[in-house]
C-alpha cells in the first residue's frame, strides 16, 4: 500500500516518500510526516535472526513505499558496508546496568552516520524517480556532527553539491577539524559568527526564499536538506531501535514482548522522535527518556507544556545538543495535536513571533510516553569518570548526559525496566572534555596526545576518522556573519 506524506503546517497536499526526501522541507516551512505510522508486522523471532541490512529493509520499506525492492536494497547495501568498522553496524555494550547502543562506528564516528550514509543514495534514487534535471544542493546547518557526516556521504556524488554552516566557536576542535579538512569538489563549509540556532534559522529562511529558489532554478540547481528535518534522515534512524530490541531478545537479555526504556541525549529531537515512531509501530518500548544538557528547553517543555526559547544560550561540553529550537519537536506537536496542521502552524507562528508557545491540556495528556530531565556540566563529567572507574568503559559527553539522566530517572521512579541508552558519538570526538572528566592532569596534553592516551586507557584502537585528520590539509576557511549566509551560497554556486 502506498504511504503518502503531508506537511505539518498544511495538510492539503500529499507527496510520495521520494518527493518528500527531495524537497527536505515542505514549501510552507513545515516538516513532512507520514499520513499514518505503519505497523511493524514481522514476528520478533524472525527479526532477531536478521542482520542490520536485512532489518533496515524490513523497516524502511514500510515508509518508503514508492521505492522498489531492488532500489531500496541497493541503497541499504551501499550505505551499511565496510565504511562501518564493526559488522553489527550498531553494537550493544552492557555497562553498569544499562545497554549502550553504540551508534558511532561509521565514517565520522557519530550517530549521524547511521542515516547520512544512506541519504545520498535515497536522494539520487529519488531524483531519478522524479525526473529531476537540476543538480541537488544540500543546504545544512550543523551543531557539529551532521555537517561532517553529510559531507562524507555526499562528497563527489554526481549531480549534488553540499553547503554546511556551523557555529565557528560552538563545536569541538576535533569536530571542526573533521569539517574543514573535508575533501570533495562539491563540498563547501562555512563557519558563522553566531550559534547553531541562528545557522538553522538562516538555512530555513533560504528554503523559504522564493526569489532565491527562482535564481537557483535558472542556474540549474534546487535545494534539499540533510538535516533531520528531512524524512530521509528520520526513517533510517527508526531501524536501530528495532535492531537493539531484536538483539536484546536474541541474546536472552529480554523476553519476547518485554518492554524496554530508551534513553536519548537530544537537542534537535530527531533521534528520540525516531524511537517514538518505533514505539508507535508496535515496538515494545515503555518510557522515552529525553536527556538535555544545560540548554534544557526540552526538559522545561515536558515539565510545563510551555516551549520557550527565550533564554541564555549555553555553550557546553556536549555541543551537538547546544540547541534552543528543536526542529523535530514540530513533528511531535503535530502528532499530539491530532495531526491538525492548522493548530500546529499557529503554534509554530507563535514560536517565530514570541519565541514560545504552550500546548493544550489535551495535547499534554498525549506526552505520557516521555520523561525529560537534564544534566549539568559537573554531572556530565562526573558520569564519565564514575562509569570509567567502575567498568573501564569510556563514553563521550553527549552519551554521559543520557547516562546521568537515566540514573536520575531510576532514582526518582524506582523503575528497573531494562534500558537502552543511545550512545551518539565516540569519546574520541570530544577527547579533551572526556579526558579532563576522567582526570584533570590530562589538560596539559595536545589534542592528538589526548587521542593516543584515550586509546591506551580505554584499550580501544584510535578510529580511522581521527587518524585521517592528524595531518589532513585544511581546505575550508570561509567565515561569515549570519545575515551573509545567502550571499555566501550564491557565490559558491556561481549565481
Structure in a nutshell:
The chain is of the alpha/beta class and 495 residues long.
Overall 3D form: globular
Q: Structural class from helices and strands?
A: alpha/beta
The total count of helices amounts to 22
Mean pLDDT across all amino acids: 96
| Total strands | 16
Strand neighbour order, sheet with most strands: 4-5-15-10-11-14
Q: What is the rounded Rg?
A: 21 Å
Biggest β-sheet strands, sense, barrel: 6 strands, mixed
Instruction: Provide the helix percentage.
Output: 40-55%
Give the uncertain stretches in residue-range form.
Answer: none
Percentage of residues in DSSP E strands: 15-25%
Terminal residue distance: 42 Å
Could you explain how this protein is built, in words?
It is built from 22 helices and 16 strands. By secondary structure, the protein is of the alpha/beta class. The strands form 4 sheets. The protein has a 6-stranded mixed sheet, sandwiched between helices. Strands 9-6-7-8-16 form a 5-stranded parallel sheet, sandwiched between helices. A 3-stranded antiparallel sheet has the order 2-1-3. The protein is globular and about 60 Å long. It starts with a strand and ends with a helix.
Amino acid at each position: 500500500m502506498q504511504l503518502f506524506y503531508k506537511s505539518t503546517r498544511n495538510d492539503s497536499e500529499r507527496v510520495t516518500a521520494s518527493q518528500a526526501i527531495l524537497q527536505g522541507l515542505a514549501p510552507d516551512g513545515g516538516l513532512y510526516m507520514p499520513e499514518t505510522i505503519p505497523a511493524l508486522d514481522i514476528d520478533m523471532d524472525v527479526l532477531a535472526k536478521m542482520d542490520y541490512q536485512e532489518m533496515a529493509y524490513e523497516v524502511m520499506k514500510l515508509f518508503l513505499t514508492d521505492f522498489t525492492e531492488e532500489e531500496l536494497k541497493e541503497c541499504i547495501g551501499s550505505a551499511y558496508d565496510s565504511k562501518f568498522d564493526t559488522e553489527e553496524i550498531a553494537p550493544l555494550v552492557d555497562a553498569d546496568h544499562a545497554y549502550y547502543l553504540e551508534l558511532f562506528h561509521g565514517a565520522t564516528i557519530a550517530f549521524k552516520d547511521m542515516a547520512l550514509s544512506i541519504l545520498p543514495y535515497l536522494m539520487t534514487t529519488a531524483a531519478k524517480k522524479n525526473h529531476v534535471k537540476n543538480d541537488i544542493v544540500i543546504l545544512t546547518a550543523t551543531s557539529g556532527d551532521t555537517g561532517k557526516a553529510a559531507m562524507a556521504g555526499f562528497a563527489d556524488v554526481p549531480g549534488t553539491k553540499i553547503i554546511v554552516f556551523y557555529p565557528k566557536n560552538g563545536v569541538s576542535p576535533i569536530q571542526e577539524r573533521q569539517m574543514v579538512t573535508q575533501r570533495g569538489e562539491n563540498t563547501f563549509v562555512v563557519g558563522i559568527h553566531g550559534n547553531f540556532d541562528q545557522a538553522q534559522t538562516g538555512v530555513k529562511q533560504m528554503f523559504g526564499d522564493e526569489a532565491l529558489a527562482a535564481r537557483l532554478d535558472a542556474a540549474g540547481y534546487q535545494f534539499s536538506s540533510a538535516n533531520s528535518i528531512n524524512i530521509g534522515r528520520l526513517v533510517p534512524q527508526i531501524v536501530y531501535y528495532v535492531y537493539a530490541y531484536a538483539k536484546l531478545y536474541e541474546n536472552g537479555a529480554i523476553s519476547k514482548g518485554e518492554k524496554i526504556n530508551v534513553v536519548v541525549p537530544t537537542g534537535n529531537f530527531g533521534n528520540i522522535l525516531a524511537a517514538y515512531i518505533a514505539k508507535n509501530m508496535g515496538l515494545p518500548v515503555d518510557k522515552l527518556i529525553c536527556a538535555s544538557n544545560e540548554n534544557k528547553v526540552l526538559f522545561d517543555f515536558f515539565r510545563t507544556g510551555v516551549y520557550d526559547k527565550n533564554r541564555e544560550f549555553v555553550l557546553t561540553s556536549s555541543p551537538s545538543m547546544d540547541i534552543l529550537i528543536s526542529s523535530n519537536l514540530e513533528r511531535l506537536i503535530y502528532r499530539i495535536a491530532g495531526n491538525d496542521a492548522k493548530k500546529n502552524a499557529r503554534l509554530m507562528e507563535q514560536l517565530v513571533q514570541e519565541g514560545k508557545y504552550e500546548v493544550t491540556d489535551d495535547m499534554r495528556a498525549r506526552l505520557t510516553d516521555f520523561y525529560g530531565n537534564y544534566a549539568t556540566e559537573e554531572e556530565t563529567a562526573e558520569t564519565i569518570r564514575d562509569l570509567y572507574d567502575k567498568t573501564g568503559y569510556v563514553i563521550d559527553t553527549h552519551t554521559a548526559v543520557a547516562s546521568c539522566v537515566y540514573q536520575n530517572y531510576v532514582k526518582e521512579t524506582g523503575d528497573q525496566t531494562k534500558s537502552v541508552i543511545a550512545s551518539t558519538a565516540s569519546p574520541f570526538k570530544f577527547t579533551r572534555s572526556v579526558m579532563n572528566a576522567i582526570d584533570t592532569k590530562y589538560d596539559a596534553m595536545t589534542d592528538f596526545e589526548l587521542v593516543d592516551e584515550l586509546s591506551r586507557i580505554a584499550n580501544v584502537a584510535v578510529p580511522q576518522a581521527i587518524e585521517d585528520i592528524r595531518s589532513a590539509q585544511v581546505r575550508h576557511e570561509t567565515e561569515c556573519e549570519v545575515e551573509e549566509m545567502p550571499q555566501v551560497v550564491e557565490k559558491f554556486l556561481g549565481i
